[in-house]
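Lecture 7 notes: from sequence to structure.

We start with a single chain of 182 residues. Read the sequence below before looking at the structure.
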Amino acid sequence: MKIIIGLGNPGKEYEATRHNVGFIFLDNLQKKWSFPGFESNKKFNAEISKGTVNSRDVILVKPQTFMNLSGEVARAILDFYKLTPEDILVIQDDLDIMIGKYKIATDSSSAGHNGINDLIEKLGTQKFARIRIGIGEEKDGALVCRLGAHDFVLGKFKEEEMGKIGMLKEDILKEADKFATS
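Now the structure, written as tokens:
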């Protein structure tokens, strides 16, 4: 069994914000794999969609704890299914990567991302796979150093930014396919 956790914040006011890019890509995976719609699961405090990919059980997870407590959800799911951190893939936003780019990470620090900090703390390791999707602002082809990151990540994507995120869709879905079937 594989678990794919998209990081984000629950509630309408956070939809389509930069910090919710993990939720956005989970919606894409759910549609691509024809999984059932997300349903609230009180035991895990998450929205869950379950299905199979090439005969492997996969659970898509949207924590409803808010970003900074995402580790609670991951820990509960791993304990319930008797899985290890190597069985999860986290899809997250990353302010230090230019919008329209992404990186794959395994066994790397949180780089100050509070949701990842909580996951590392609750799982007791940083040895889990991540797709780090860039939301960093670009100016003249370079990444802009941000002050006031909190307000920026909770801001809605501009139309041009959503276009760049959309261009990553196929690559991210391929990466998730590889993880789900490994």
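The first helix runs from residue 21 to 32. Keep this in mind for problem set 3.
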